[in-house]
Write a structure and sequence with these properties.
45% of the residues lie in helices and 22% in strands. It is of the alpha/beta class. A 6-stranded mixed β-sheet has the order 2-1-3-8-4-7, sandwiched between helices. Strands 5-6 form a two-stranded parallel sheet.
Length: 288
């Protein structure tokens, strides 16, 4: 019996040593699931794959509406969230500077980040959150009931106005007075279906809204500049990780931030080229 018990104990110890360490789960709430498509979705997928290579941390993306992103990050049911600037401003008001910051050019977005990044990160930190990245989410486009290629095409139309969106001021300088109706993520389709909005400037990752507008025969229009947001985490996001592992993840995030920016820059160049091919001048005027 002693020999049998000793053998069982030895087998148990061997099994315990061989068992893999439990992976730390990093829960990140997102509006769009990672995968193919726009540079942002691809960047999220690449981030998860790169983090997983070390075998200590597993990134679990949790799809949520924009409102739930904010609520769940505050409640601590997720570790991090990818937040458009308008939502990130609920954690630090000055982050609103990232809402459609580059209606003119990508270079202006890059300049804005260089000048304000440290201050924005410090503001989040003072409120209990760590800014892992200020991500360039991509571009956004007009969808409209009629083609919009020159400023005068907007005359007589009513456009969705997003909170904090500086494009309205830019367009007003070019076109003059523009009729507007206030839009939120939750009501933009209702505004269109009721006839209250004829033109909608939408981020490309609003895939559901784009699909509905396509079915309503809205015209896919101009790309009018980059949109940004933040990968924001609770300060406890790295609990249970070694300092080396946490630093490694921060570096991976920054590397993906750079790759996404390069991909968006290439897309923007192509969008301008296509716009010129259609004889459109609106994009060029917005960037001037």
């Amino acid at each position: 019996m002693k020999i049998e018990a000793s053998a069982l104990l030895a087998a148990a110890l061997l099994t315990a040593r061989a068992a893999p360490a439990e992976l730390k789960e990093l829960r990140i709430a997102v509006i769009v699931e990672p995968g193919k498509g726009n540079p942002w979705a691809k960047g999220q997928q690449a981030l998860a794959e790169e983090v997983a290579r070390d075998g200590q941390v597993h990134v679990n993306y949790v799809p949520r509406t924009e409102a739930r992103l904010v609520d769940e990050l505050k409640a601590g049911s997720v570790d991090c969230a990818t937040l458009p600037a308008i939502s990130a401003s609920e954690f630090y008001p000055a982050a609103i500077v990232g809402q459609f910051p580059g209606v003119r050019t990508l270079a202006k977005f890059q300049e804005l980040v260089r000048k304000t990044r440290a201050d924005i990160a410090a503001g989040f930190a003072a409120n209990g959150y760590e800014m892992l990245s200020w991500w360039l989410f991509g571009f956004y486009t007009f969808q409209s009931k009629v083609p919009v290629r020159v400023p005068d095409d907007l005359s007589g139309l009513t456009m969705c106005a997003w909170p904090g969106d500086s494009i309205q001021n830019a367009l007003s300088n070019i076109v003059g007075s523009i009729k507007q109706t206030r839009c939120l993520t939750s009501n933009v389709l209702q505004k269109v279906e009721s006839g209250a909005a004829d033109v909608v400037p939408l981020p490309v990752f609003f895939s559901e809204q784009h699909q509905v507008l396509n079915k309503m025969k809205f015209v896919w229009g101009e790309s009018v500049g980059p949109l940004s947001g933040f990968l924001l985490c609770r300060k406890s996001w790295s609990d249970g990780m070694s300092a080396i592992e946490a630093a490694r993840i921060r570096q991976i995030v920054l590397k993906q931030e750079e790759k996404i920016e390069q991909a968006v820059e290439a897309f923007e160049a192509g969008a301008l080229q296509r716009a010129r091919g259609r004889g459109s001048v609106l994009s060029a005027k917005l960037r001037s």
